[in-house]
Write a structure and sequence with these properties.
Elements (H helix, E strand, L loop, with lengths): L12 E2 L8 E2 L10 E2 L7 E2 L34 E3 L7 E3 H11 L12 H9 L8
Antiparallel strand pairs: 1-2, 3-4, 5-6
Protein name: G2E3 ligase
GO molecular function: ligase activity; zinc ion binding
InterPro entries: EPHD, PHD-type_Zinc_Finger, Znf_RING, Znf_RING/FYVE/PHD
Length: 132
């Protein structure tokens, strides 16, 4: 199979959406904005069928990552994520992934400290957790 991201052969990950035949290499997934869920059935999605966060518009337009304090996009996207509990925290995907790997089972929103809905949402969006 040919990877739809790098176009090289040997792609073994297939989008789990019925009818989608896109395949990719696991290391190519971030470059193609693909989401792999590292829990349950370990499902993978191409950029077109990946899960999307459903967050309310923010009353404040503070476009700052809650982790690195850098600027984030105005809208929720593959690269910009938010907390489903407080609806106000925004962060870069790379920043929240780094935090998740360091925090392990104590992973929670860096702003409101919510844990369960936040962790479930991040797992669904493809953020990996360290089990240590």
């Amino acid at each position: 199979q040919s990877c739809f991201i790098c176009y090289k052969m040997g792609a073994t990950i297939t989008c789990c959406q019925t009818g989608c035949d896109r395949t990719f290499h696991l290391p190519c997934a971030p470059d193609g904005q693909c989401v792999t869920q590292y829990f349950g059935a370990y499902r993978s999605f191409c950029w077109e069928h990946s899960p999307q966060q459903k967050l309310q518009p923010r009353p404040s337009q503070d476009n700052t990552c809650a982790i690195c304090l850098g600027t984030v996009e105005d809208i929720i996207s593959y690269k910009t994520m938010g907390c489903p509990a407080c609806q106000d925290a925004r962060f870069h995907r790379q920043c929240i992934q780094r935090l998740a790997l360091h925090a392990g089972i104590g992973f929670r929103c860096p702003c409101c400290l919510n844990q369960e809905p936040f962790m479930i949402e991040m797992l669904t969006m493809g953020i990996r957790l360290s089990k240590r």
